[in-house]
Design a protein that fits this description.
mainly alpha; 2 helices
Length: about 60
């Protein structure tokens, strides 16, 4: 992304590192997993799958 500026700590002049930066790889992996589960649930609904199966997948999604 061009034109993106980084936040700088006002007292030290050092670029500010957000708290989530160290966890970014694991957070992105978790988001990809959640996205995949949501797409799977969408397909289940489109395919008129049994309601209990969908509810089980929704429960798994909420715990991801």
């Amino acid at each position: 992304m061009e034109g993106k500026s980084k936040a700088v700590n006002a007292t030290s002049g050092v670029p500010k590192q957000y708290r989530y930066a160290r966890d970014k790889p694991s957070l992105l992996a978790r988001m990809r997993k959640i996205e995949g589960q949501a797409r799977g649930i969408q397909r289940m609904i489109e395919d008129d799958r049994y309601c209990i199966d969908i509810v089980q997948q929704l429960t798994a999604l909420s715990r991801a």
